[in-house]
Design brief:
This protein is mostly helical and about 425 residues long. It is built from 15 helices and two strands. It has a two-stranded antiparallel ribbon. The longest helix is centred in the first third of the chain and has 47 residues. The N and C termini lie far apart (about 85 Å).
Length: about 425
């Protein structure tokens, strides 16, 4: 018997000790960071493909239920419709882009010729420091010459860049298609990786994070459209040049919470100072003040009415936090990192709150509600939470028991007072 027990013990795999687990976790994090750094060009289309799959999930489910189609066929129809919309738009915009590139190239060539025509002996004094114009001209000429060659429609760089863009777009659509089609399988695979005992916490975390991203994508698109219309009308009324471009610019900046309004205000005031109004006979400075006042009024409407009603409170972040996130996102993912900075920070905030609660043995999902709520309301909510997940919510049961004791003590005190006053009567 002893030999059998020893043989069975030898056949069981050895458990990792805590130092080994820490070392392996650190190595995995380092390898993941290295992979993100090395495969950064692939990260952007991969992220866009995942976002497409996430946004199109409700549409695919609706078509699948309404037409009783297989998921693969419903997904294929959705992406075929997207291609039918995207390809003609891209085909019609290509000549416009080429004409703009040729125009920019000609302007740069004229500017280089102007720089070369300057007198080589001219000097410029800026804050007491003398600068030789010829040195500046040489630097600018060299940089602009390389830029002109790169943006020329017939150059190798331009053709290679266009081919690379087309390849990334196709790659993005393929990734989005497979993620959309196999979303249920991917979700089941991820659930299978959750350690035992953490399934309920994982579901609650995913629900909160899903609420953040749903509010961001679906609410942000609606908000951007509404703001585009409002700013286009406002710019037209004020007489700002190219009002539709300013409206579109303001709608896109709504994807940057807290700082998008500031950027649009700076843009509008700068345009007003440089160009003035199209029909208001006012000096540029006075007109810029009027534009600034209109921007302040719009910002108040946007912050206090539009954002709370359309998006809600899930993605509300402090401006300093958003600025830091935008800087980090720009360094990691470029324009895409800037656009996704806010929901990423909000998701990290949810995960950070959970980790903090676990580290200090607190309830990671505390009872929601003001402490000054009525006793009956707090008791009912505490009992519901305690019955909902008694093993993972020790604090909820404690709250319920404390409220019951308080009510019993209040009731007994009232009874004692009644009994004390009865003989006097």
């Amino acid at each position: 018997m002893n030999n059998d027990a020893a043989e069975a013990a030898n056949t069981q795999p050895a458990q990792w000790t805590l130092p080994v687990k820490v070392i392996v976790s650190v190595l995995v994090l380092v390898l993941m960071g290295l992979a993100v750094y090395l495969f950064q060009p692939v990260l952007i289309p991969l992220t866009i493909g995942i976002i497409m799959a996430y946004v199109l999930q409700p549409v695919v489910r609706a078509i699948q239920r309404a037409a009783r189609l297989p998921r693969g066929l419903a997904t294929g129809l959705i992406y075929l419709a997207l291609l039918v919309l995207v390809v003609p738009v891209a085909w019609s915009l290509t000549p416009v882009v080429v004409r703009q590139v040729v125009y920019v190239q000609r302007e740069l060539i004229d500017f280089v010729r102007y720089l070369q025509s300057l007198s080589p002996g001219t000097t410029v004094e800026v804050m007491g420091i003398q600068f030789a114009v010829q040195d500046l001209v040489d630097e600018l000429t060299s940089s602009l010459t390389g830029l002109i060659r790169s943006v020329a429609p017939g150059s190798f760089t331009f053709v290679f860049g266009a081919a690379r863009t087309i390849l990334l777009v196709v790659f993005t659509f393929v990734i989005g298609f497979y993620f959309t089609r196999d979303a249920s399988r991917i979700a089941d695979w991820l659930r299978g990786m959750i350690p035992p005992g953490y399934g309920r916490d994982s579901e609650k975390l995913l629900t909160e994070i899903d609420g953040v991203w749903s509010a961001f994508f679906r609410g942000q698109v609606v908000l951007a459209l509404v703001v585009t219309v409002i700013l286009t009308v406002l710019s037209t009324i004020l007489g700002l040049p190219r009002p539709y471009l300013l409206g579109i610019w303001g709608g896109l900046l709504e994807f940057l919470p807290s700082i998008g309004n500031v950027i649009w205000g700076l843009t509008a005031v700068t345009v007003a100072l440089l160009h003035g109004s199209n029909y208001l006979p006012l000096p540029n400075g006075i007109f810029a003040l009027i534009v600034f006042g209109a921007y302040v009024a719009f910002a108040q409407v946007d912050i206090n009415i539009l954002i709370p009603r359309i998006i809600g409170q899930r993605v509300r972040l402090h401006p300093v936090v958003v600025i830091i996130g935008v800087i980090i996102g720009a360094s990691v993912g470029g324009v895409l990192g800037v656009a996704l900075a806010a929901p990423m920070i909000a998701s990290v905030r949810i995960l950070g709150r959970y980790v903090y609660a676990k580290l200090f043995d607190l309830d990671p999902f505390p009872m929601v509600g003001p402490p000054a709520a009525p006793v009956e309301e707090r008791e009912t909510q505490a009992e519901r939470l305690a019955a909902e997940a008694a093993p993972t919510r020790p604090l909820a049961g404690a709250i319920a028991e404390k409220v019951r004791r308080h009510r019993r003590s209040v009731g007994s005190t009232g009874d004692d007072d009644t009994r004390t006053e009865t003989p006097c009567d």
